[in-house]
Structure formats: C-alpha cells, structure tokens
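Inverse folding, one chain.
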C-alpha cells in the first residue's frame, strides 16, 4: 500500500522549482477527478491539452494537464484539499522535456541494460524508471513490461534518481510505432470495425456481455499502472470481440466510463483504443 508523501505540498514546490510540472495523485495513484464544472471535459480542457477553449478552473483537474510549476497554484486554496488527500506526487515528463522508460519488472530491466544507453535511473516498487532528456509521444506496452511516458502522460515522482541523464536515444524512439499518414481520427468515441470481417464467436449475447463486464471489472480494480491496464484491456477486448461486428458503441462507452473513473481522460481512452486497433491491424 502506498504511504502518503510527507508534506507533499512542500515536496511539490521543490520539484516545481527545478522546472518539472507536478500534480497530486489520490488513492489508487491516479489523478483527482474533474470537478463538476469540468466533468466530461465540458469546459473544453486546459490550453496545453491541445483542445478548444481555455479552462479557467483553479482545481487540479484534467489529469496530466493539471501539472504545473507555478508555486501560486500549488499553494492555492483550490489545491489544498487535494494535497491533504494526496497519497503521492506525479509529474508531467513531457512538460519538462523528459521521457521516462517505465520498466515494470526484472526482465524489462535486463532488456534495457542490453538495449538502451545508460542514463539516470529511479527505483520503483517492482522495477525502474530510466529518464532521458527530450520529449516524445507516450505509448503503453511498447514491449513486455515497458511503457513510454512523456507528452500527455504522467509518472510518479519517486525521487531524483541516480546517474547522469542522457539524451533521448533513437533506440527509445524506435520503440514507438508512428501512426500511418492517414488523417487523424477525431477525438470522439471510436467505433470498432463493423461488417463481419471475422468469424463470430458469440453464440449467445451473454458471452459478449460477460466479456465486457469482466473487462470493466479489470479496469475498475486496477490499483497501479492504470494506463497500461486500460490499454491491455482494450487490446484483449478487441482481439476477442472486435472483428465480427457485435461490439457496439454502448459496449465501448462502458469501457471508457470505467477508465475515466480511474482518472483517464477521454483523450487517453481514445488514444489507447486507437493504439490497440493499430496493434491488431484493425
């Protein structure tokens, strides 16, 4: 169980002073949910989320986009409740022009030692964060036990780490498969493939319903690595239920709702879904 960070506000101020945008995380190590005015991104989002409108909300809303280096925001009354309930601190690597290679286990660490340049490392509960100078697109599960956290993502602050930070190498960038030059999908609820392109495994509606319910439960019960859990769950659902045309917008909406209840933004959900479709060639 994660222990609350001693004086998290003071620690956050110290981190922010070094130019690293910070935000509080609540139980489950996820961002605080949007306030009533910002629910379902009704406010249009914060400017650095690259979506329309400025959001003038002073609360720590919008997940990674709430991260700030402004001490006046960090000590503001609107953030006071969040700091009291905070279980740990996170930061936005991309906002500090950093990339975190999140290695979840010993196998992933062994791979990194043979494949990537030495850089600053930070121990985690089960693995290590390798931190490089330079920002890139964030993608989960680029290989077993390896996530990339940089732009539009957050990483837990577990200390400054040890070692000299190296420049972001091509070996890390190569882990992320760039999308095809096709037009970017709109950031709305994505639709699974329709038209019966694969054999239908659903002899009864109950089979599909049980699969979706189990997927929702898996996301809901995630206590860590929420980004990775959401992506892997979407991948599993699509690989089993996405080719025959039985998966409906209602099913997808249930998955998105469960993910957003764990702190994911609608944009993160859409990106994870799109990445899963791409990985499966759908």
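Residues assigned per position:
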């Amino acid at each position: 169980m994660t222990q609350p960070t001693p004086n998290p506000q003071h620690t956050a101020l110290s981190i922010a002073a070094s130019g690293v945008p910070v935000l509080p995380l609540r139980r489950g190590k996820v961002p605080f949910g949007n306030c009533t005015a910002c629910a379902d991104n009704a406010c249009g989002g914060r400017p650095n989320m690259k979506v329309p409108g400025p959001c003038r909300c002073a609360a720590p809303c919008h997940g990674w986009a709430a991260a700030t280096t402004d001490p006046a925001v960090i000590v503001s009354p609107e953030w006071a409740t969040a700091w009291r309930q905070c279980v740990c601190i996170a930061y936005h690597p991309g906002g500090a022009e950093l990339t975190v290679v999140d290695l979840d286990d010993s196998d992933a660490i062994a791979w990194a030692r043979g494949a990537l340049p030495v850089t600053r490392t930070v121990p985690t509960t089960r693995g290590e964060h390798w931190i490089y100078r330079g920002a890139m697109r964030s993608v989960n599960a680029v290989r077993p036990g390896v996530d990339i956290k940089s732009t539009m993502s957050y990483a837990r602050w577990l200390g400054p780490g040890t070692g000299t930070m190296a420049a972001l190498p091509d070996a890390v960038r190569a882990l992320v498969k760039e999308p095809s030059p096709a037009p970017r999908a709109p950031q709305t609820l994505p639709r699974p493939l329709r038209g019966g392109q694969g054999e239908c495994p659903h002899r009864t509606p109950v089979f599909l319903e049980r699969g979706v319910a189990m997927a929702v439960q898996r996301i809901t019960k995630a206590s860590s690595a929420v980004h990775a859990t959401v992506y892997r769950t979407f991948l599993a659902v699509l690989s089993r239920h996405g080719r025959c045309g039985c998966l409906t917008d209602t099913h997808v909406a249930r998955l998105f709702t469960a993910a957003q209840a764990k702190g994911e933004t609608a944009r993160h959900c859409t990106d994870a879904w799109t990445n899963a479709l791409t990985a499966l060639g759908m």
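Confidence is low (pLDDT under 50) at residues 180-187, 192-196. Strands lie at 22-26, 30-31, 88-91, 98-103, 120-123, 128-133, 139-143, 146-149, 155-156, 166-167.
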